[in-house]
Write a structure and sequence with these properties.
Layout lengths: L5 H11 L23 H11 L2 H7 L1 E4 L8 H4 L4 E4 L10 H16 L8 E4 L17 H7 L2 H16 L5 E2 L23 H6 L2 H7 L14 E5 L13 E2 L3 H8 L1 H8 L4 E4 L3 E2 L2 E2 L4 H11 L5 E3 L16 H10 L4 E2 L4 H13 L5 H18 L18 H14 L1 E5 L12 E4 L6 H5 L19 H8 L6 E3 L12 E7 L18 H12 L4 E6 L15 E4 L8 H7 L56 E3 L1 E10 L2 E9 L8 E7 L4 E6 L2 E5 L2 E5 L12 E9 L9 E5 L3
Parallel strand pairs: 1-2, 1-11, 2-3, 3-4, 5-7, 6-8, 7-10, 13-14, 13-15, 15-16, 16-17
Antiparallel strand pairs: 8-9, 12-17, 18-26, 19-20, 20-25, 21-24, 21-26, 22-25, 23-24
Helix pairs in contact: 2-15, 6-16, 7-9, 7-16, 13-14, 16-20, 18-20
The structure holds alpha-D-glucopyranose.
Alpha-D-glucopyranose binds next to loops.
């Protein structure tokens, strides 16, 4: 971790020259806030005692970087937080420029009399997705399809490293929304339609922050449970709409994920734009203070959504009354985000008029400062450049590819069209076959995302070409022009183009667009079996076309590692994904959810796999009874020069495993001890087979083995796992 003397020098200089307006505490505080060995509570007490009202108001103010036209405003207005909204970017767009930008703004904050570092937030919702070259993971709906909370935690850890490498300390993620109506433009930001599934994926909070909470690991970034509460339950799926539920229903469907996140020590909660039975969440004291802070015991800070308080009175802009209502309801930090000067003035007026008690201001500051101290921002305020190189790293892309593999849901496979033979002559078509932008979706390089070659990655077509025996036998035409009966199969990659938030609301039809339908018609006319790969942020209304499709894979929004899709198409990974959302038979069924009595096209939790022996290119080293398994590695202890790891082998299939093996490249590492497995190493690769006592793994079950090793614990490649079902 890079230490900086900058902070202590600035404070020492200002103190010596008397340039600080800090009031010396009336009585000697239990600790000096600059003492990193002191208890956080004592540091907060000391700092609060030194702060002026303007210092405290500044801490509660979050400004969009693009609105800060004079960088010195960060110091002048004591801004406690800066964000980059969805369209925030830097030029040139790379990790180094982001880190330099962050450091320059942080130096402004450190130049203030008390030198309180600012905290910088961004929507890293499926990777450091504002940074060109970053690893882009599947959006949450695909991660929900993996049913693999441990994998999702590891993704959080990898994202935290890439975000830290850009200097940024705080991600506005995860969205713990329970999407109940697929018309909602943010359905893909949800892990699924049930509170149980969404709650299970709150493991990503530990990935972002560390298992010991904010600051518990060097790459820790503050996580945000959002959007509290009921954003996924609005009537008709209208974004920022009205959630019309009884309190019992609201608590049953939408509260559990937030309860889990709070228990995992999530550092911040973002308030939903939506309303509950007509009352705006941004002014809802019962839900924000009594339930979230009181009943759930949330001890982090509550941040508004983008200009969220402006909506309280139904008129544009914000007023002192709205400021008071929001902060008295329990908001601690306001994402203004543009007119921060007006906001600061209004907040000061509201406090001076007695409409916001000083106790509320102090409580908000205590919450914010506690997280800043826990994150270590006072000791390490500038970018830790040791993480900058992790942005888009091979190890992270491997992890993302594993997530893509596990997120694919096989919905139809008549006649065993899948897996495809790598020796086949293939025709690939569809607007999303060769389009990183489409396969990444919204919140990628810009708020709404957009089609095209927007960032480095592997498209589905590139994955196919890399997998086959002879790439010259793969023909691509976006519209299907040129196909004839000479092809073994056609792969049509179709679906939705990128969108975000309300612009993605679908109030009318939810089927494929005209281009896709025309492409599919062309392919079908050739008589060649068509495999449809659906790249979309939600289930689509495809029942009418389904009879013409021998095979269908829901790919969701896989991100930059399209090779994970081709891994499934060719059987290099047998599909294990399960639907995170009930799939409508008709758009007229929306909302449609598990156990609601309606008759869906595919049930929540549905997902096929390949029967053993369907491998079209039999691998001579593969036993006929091979079944897929997954192996995930967790570093449980690390020391200089070595580490201890635990590997969990999981059977995601439907058939009991009678044996397994996990293999991975060691790189420069050497295994010094291993238990609950039988190790062989050759050619720099470790292969661990089960011990006699842990070869049996029931469907959905797990077993573990562990090892110690010399070398770095960073960027461990995920082991490849092969299971066996023959005795
Ligand atoms: C947006 C979204 C929220 C996001 C915030 C900052 O409007 O509702 O999810 O974190 O603004 O970009």
């Amino acid at each position: 971790m890079m230490r900086t003397a900058l902070l202590s020098a600035a404070v020492a200089f200002l103190t010596l020259t008397g340039a600080t307006n800090a009031q010396p505490p009336a009585e000697a505080a239990a600790a000096d806030y600059r003492d990193s060995t002191a208890a956080v509570d004592d540091r907060v007490d000391d700092l609060l005692a030194r702060m002026t009202l303007d210092d405290k108001i500044g801490q509660m103010t979050q400004a969009d970087r693009d609105a800060i036209l004079t960088q010195s405003d960060v110091a002048t207005y004591r801004l406690g937080s800066i964000l980059s909204g969805g369209d925030g970017t830097v030029s040139p767009n790379n990790a180094q420029t982001w880190a330099d930008t962050y450091d320059n703004l942080q130096r402004q904050a450190l130049s203030t009399p008390l030198g309180i570092p600012m905290i910088y937030g961004i929507d890293a919702v499926h990777g450091a997705n504002a940074v060109r070259g970053a690893t882009i993971y599947p959006h949450n709906i695909g991660l929900g399809a993996t049913r693999d909370p441990e994998l999702v935690e590891r993704i959080g850890g990898a994202v935290a490293e890439e975000v830290s490498g850009t200097g940024i300390d705080w991600t506005f993620a995860p969205c713990l929304c329970v999407a109940r109506n697929d018309r909602w433009g943010r359905t893909y930001e949800s892990f699924g339609e049930t509170p149980e599934l969404v709650t299970s994926m709150a493991t990503i909070v530990d990935g972002f922050q560390g298992t010991g909470g904010p600051g518990s690991k060097p790459s820790s970034v503050l996580a945000t449970a959002k959007h509290y509460i009921g954003d996924g339950g609005t009537t008709n799926g209208t974004d920022q709409g009205n959630t019309q539920l009884t309190e019992a229903e609201l608590r049953a469907y939408h509260l559990p994920p937030f309860k889990e996140a709070v228990e995992r020590g999530v550092g911040s909660v973002m308030v939903s734009f939506s309303s509950w039975n007509g009352a705006k969440l941004h002014g809802h004291k019962y839900l924000l203070t009594d339930v979230l802070k009181g009943e759930l015991g949330f001890d982090g800070f509550v941040v508004s959504d983008w200009a969220g308080i402006d909506q309280l009175d139904g008129r544009t802009g914000f007023t002192g009354a709205e400021v008071s209502q929001a902060i008295n309801a329990g908001l601690d930090m306001i994402m203004v985000p543009n007119d921060y000067k007006t906001f600061i003035g209004l907040l000061r007026d509201e406090v001076n008029a007695g409409r916001i008690p000083m106790s509320r201001i102090d409580d908000a500051n205590r919450r914010i400062l506690t997280k800043k101290f826990e994150l270590g921002l006072f000791e390490h305020p500038l970018t830790d450049r040791s993480y900058t190189g992790t942005v888009g790293s091979a190890a992270h892309r491997d992890l993302a590819r594993q997530a893509v593999r596990e997120s694919q849901v096989l919905l139809k496979n008549d006649g065993g069209v899948l897996p495809l033979a790598k020796s086949g002559k293939l025709f690939v078509a569809g607007k999303s076959a060769d389009d990183i932008g489409n396969q990444s979706g919204g919140w990628t390089m810009s708020w709404q995302g957009h089609s095209g070659d927007i960032t480095p990655g592997t498209t589905v077509l590139e994955g196919i070409r890399a997998a086959v025996t002879d790439p010259s036998r793969v023909t691509f035409d976006r519209y299907g022009n040129g196909i004839d009966g000479s092809y073994t199969a056609a792969v049509a990659v179709v679906g939705e183009t990128p969108y975000a938030e309300g612009r993605g609301d679908r109030t009318g039809a939810m089927g494929l667009d005209t281009e896709d339908l025309q492409t599919l018609t062309r392919l079908r006319a050739s008589g060649v079996p068509v495999v449809v790969v659906l790249v979309s942020g939600r289930p689509l209304d495809i029942a009418a076309q389904l009879p013409d499709w021998p095979a269908l894979v829901a790919a969701w929004l896989p991100g930059t590692e399209g090779g994970g899709v081709s891994d499934v198409l060719f059987g290099d990974y047998r599909p294990t994904g399960k639907l995170p959302m009930t799939w409508m038979r008709s758009v007229s069924q929306q909302p449609i959810n598990v156990a609601d009595g309606k008759d869906p096209l595919f049930e929540y939790g549905y997902g096929l796999t390949y029967d053993a022996g369907t491998d079209p290119d039999p691998d001579p080293d593969r036993d006929p009874g091979d079944e897929s398994c997954t192996a995930t590695t967790k570093v449980v202890n690390a020391w200089s020069g070595g580490f201890q790891a635990e590997v969990t082998v999981r059977n995601p299939g439907t058939v009991q495993l009678t044996g397994w093996e996990a293999a991975w490249d060691l790189g420069s590492r050497t295994i010094t001890n291993l238990w609950n497995g039988q190790l062989t190493t050759s050619g720099g690769r470790a292969t661990v087979r089960n011990s006699p006592w842990n070869g049996t793994v029931p469907p959905g079950g797990t077993v573990t083995f562990g090892y110690t090793a010399n070398g770095s614990a960073d960027n461990l490649p995920p082991p490849a796992c092969t299971g066996a079902t023959t005795p």
